[in-house]
Amino acid sequence: SDAAKGMFKELEAIAIAVVGGILMTGGFGSIVGVVFGAVTFGLVANAVFFIPWIDGAWFRVFVGTVLLAAVFANERIRKRITGGI
Length: 85
Known about the structure:
- The chain is mainly α.
- It has a domain of about 55 residues.
- The protein is built from three helices and no strands.
- The protein starts with 8 loop residues before the first helix and ends with a helix.
């Protein structure tokens, strides 16, 4: 069995939750949103891996971009809620 079989799955799980509307700081979200995030990620993963001219490594770039956008969006939402503190 390959020891690296589950590499980067934790980042995908976090990105799926964030795409589904879960705040990274917690306290807000829904199961329906997470299901939506999982379906979205599944569609993107299939598109990346089944389109022959796109390298499979681009899916990791997509996951990283989503996480980076989530950090900025989470900070913006937090500042709006706390009044800019």
